[in-house]
Design a protein that fits this description.
Blueprint lengths: L10 E3 H26 L4 H4 L8 E4 H15 L1 H22 L1 H11 L4 H19 L3 E6 L3 E8 L14 H14 L7 E5 L8 E6 L4
Antiparallel strand pairs: 1-2, 3-4, 4-6, 5-6
């Protein structure tokens, strides 16, 4: 008698899917997001923007197809530029969607030096993913860098690529750090990606602003 293994679906909640779709529409326009949704076989979302609640929304597989469709339509470089810009815009909509969590950080950030502000900003972002989604994130640190490490990633789920597909997270991190540092820019570099065959996704963040 053989045992059967149940495959669990992993989800992003409606609120985060809503933020992602609004940011992508802002980055590529209404016609662009419609084309991407059609290509990803997610036509339902053309007429139905998810409500701002925490019920299960898109599966990781669907989000992976969505971001893959952007590169299929715009090419790898063009698609990554668009997705990175969407990641930056996600922060703006995230402020609206997670005001309570981010508001606490905003108060604390006024009191601390920049490296500590950066760490707090990364911790808050990781907490949002770990608390509200099935994505799993942890932080690492070296003397000159922080590492945003994703052990289960919904943005590259089901994808197999030769180059990292971390543009959305790069944009989100860069905009988060711009906010927590009160207008400074930081180098963010993908040094590991599950879609490329790595065990985890990893983004390195310089502690010192550019």
């Amino acid at each position: 008698m053989s045992a059967t293994v149940e495959r669990r679906e992993y989800y992003f909640p409606n609120r985060i899917v809503r933020i992602l779709l609004l940011a992508m529409q802002e980055a590529m326009g209404e016609n662009g997001i419609h084309a991407v949704l059609n290509t990803a076989r997610l036509q339902y979302y053309i007429e139905h923007c998810p409500p701002p609640d925490f019920e299960p929304g898109m599966t990781f597989d669907e989000v992976g197809r969505l971001l893959e469709a952007v590169e299929g339509i715009y090419g790898i470089r063009g698609g990554q530029r668009i997705v990175r810009r969407a990641g930056e815009t996600c922060f703006k909509y995230g402020i609206e969607g997670f005001g309570g969590v981010i508001g606490f950080a905003d108060f604390a950030l006024r009191l601390f030096p920049i490296p500590l502000r950066v760490r707090i900003g990364l911790e808050v972002l990781a907490e949002i993913f770990n608390r509200y989604t099935d994505q799993r994130v942890r932080l690492g640190e070296s003397p000159d860098s922080f590492f945003f490490i994703t052990e289960r990633c919904g943005f590259c789920w089901g994808r197999h690529t030769d180059t990292p597909t971390c543009a959305l997270m790069e944009g989100l991190l860069q905009e988060t750090l711009y906010w927590v540092s009160r207008g400074k820019h930081f180098a963010v570099e993908a040094i590991g990606c599950i879609a490329c065959g790595d065990a985890v996704g990893a983004l390195r963040v310089d502690k010192t602003p550019l």
